[in-house]
Amino acid sequence: MSISLTDAAIHRVREFMAREGGRALRVGVKRTGCSGWAYVVGLAETIEPGDHQFEDAGITIVVDAESLPLVDGSRIDFVIDGLNRTFKFDNPNATEECGCGESFTIQ
């Protein structure tokens, strides 16, 4: 089981952590959107019991137990497209994404 970051994502997470603090990058999912699941990315102040931890380039990534099967093996990139700046997931578990790219389906 693993979650990894591209160089662009590592740079962005380090910027956020330097400015905002935080102990780790928290990655998860929530039910929403056209296709059923949406990614949730934020900084974690604490690591909760049951969280799974991964390390990439000195950054701790935490994922709750319920989200892990849905994001396991994902590679997270940080993409700038015009005025839009977002984390983009390359998730081997996703079988479909909605047209706007905000949500995904697992079968």
TrEMBL record:
One Gene Ontology biological process: iron-sulfur cluster assembly
GO molecular function terms attached to this record: 2 iron, 2 sulfur cluster binding
Domain Core: 1-102
UniProt xrefs under InterPro entries: ATAP, ATAP_core_dom, Fe-S_cluster_asmbl/transfer, FeS_cluster_insertion_CS, HesB-like_dom_sf
A single cellular component GO annotation: cytosol
Family: Belongs to the HesB/IscA family.
Protein name in UniProt: Iron-sulfur cluster assembly accessory protein
